[in-house]
Amino acid sequence: MKNILLIGGLLLSSTAFQAAAEEQCGTVTIADMNWSSASLIANVDRFILEHGYGCEARLTPGDTMPTSTSMVEKGQPDIAPEIWWNNVKELMERGISEKRLAVAGHSLANGGEEGFWVPKYMVDKDPSLKTIEGIIANASLFTNPEDPERSAFYGCPAGWGCQITATNQYRALKLDAAGFDLINPGSGAGLSGSIAHAYQRQQPWFGYYWAPTAILGKYDMVKVEFANESDIEHFRNCISKENCAEPKATMYPAALVQTVTTADFAKKSTFAFSYLGKRSFTNAQMNQLLAWMEENQADGQIAAEEFMINHKDIWSQWVPADVAAKIDSAVSNL
Fold first, then answer.
1. DSSP track, 178-200
2. Are residues 230 and 264 in the same domain?
């Protein structure tokens, strides 16, 4: 009899939990940002909130600045799945201080990642190439295709914010004196294309890149070490400034990438907010997913369905077992 009562109590508790979650959630709007990783996360959130928590989840087009501004000033949309904090730092801090926004958790567990990279096949042959000292000692390997007497360091495309940081790091490391020319790839496609070209021919390559990206999901690259740790203050006050007079080499600090909701949503939908706090991707996971999206020319919805079908080991860790069972049932119908 005690066992029957216990089982009955657990079933009632589970039913009560689900009813409370559905009552709390109602209609929820999610910003579908216009880049691949954010669109993928938005579609994953829509699927899980709809099928796991009974929400009426809707996607709305979004971009960093207009979405952030709308959330602060109009209280919509409810969720921005991937906010790169440094891009809207002042607006985010104002929204939080005025109790209009709430931070649910980290979209990317490792944060956004930047650095100088070399192909892993080079490091496998010579482990010293994972350090800047090893790169400089072997500068002749990285031949500049326009000048065989010089070496090539591929920087960030002109006009991008990372052009400033990559150029200042190039100066700080005295790569010019070491024989490296700073190559402007012309565009993001030109930069990624230079990595693909080198990889297909197993040739040397050295330059700037960032994660999560499809390229680092496709091609195994190693980040070059040129400082013991990141000097965040110097990076912010000098390396990221165009007029940095005396740049000092520092590893790129991780960029804070978080899921942000309106404060009203956080108060009303505590079960959904708790899920968002647990939902997080590593850069390695996201790199692979982005590579799959590119190879299959998939949009955020198709990529989210592929993720839900093939990565239960990841998403099931974000929700309670009874919610996972409901989601699993919906996944079986995809």
1. TTEEEE--SSHHHHHHHHHHHHH
2. no
Total tally of structural domains belonging to the chain: 2
List the 27-33 sheet strands across, edge first.
56-62, 27-33, 79-84, 257-262, 101-106
How many angstroms separate the CA atoms of 323 and 310, rounded? 18
Q: Which pTM does this prediction carry?
A: 0.84
| Same domain as 273, residue 212 | no
Of the candidates 261, 272, 334, 259, the one whose C-alpha atom is nearest the C-alpha of residue 303 is 334
Residue 119 lies in a domain: yes
Q: Are residues 124 and 194 in the same domain?
A: yes
DSSP, residue by residue, 248-266: ---PPPPBPEEEEEEHHHH
Helices and strands, number each (H, E), in the chain: 16, 11
Local confidence pLDDT in tens for the 334 residues of the chain: 444 444 444 444 444 445 555 556 889 999 999 899 999 999 999 999 999 999 999 999 999 999 999 999 999 999 999 999 877 888 999 999 999 999 999 999 999 999 999 999 999 999 999 999 999 999 999 999 999 999 999 999 988 888 999 999 999 999 999 999 999 999 999 999 999 999 999 999 999 999 999 999 999 999 999 987 899 999 989 999 989 999 999 999 999 999 999 999 999 999 999 999 999 999 999 999 999 999 999 999 999 999 999 999 999 999 999 999 999 999 999 9
DSSP helix/strand/coil, 154: strand
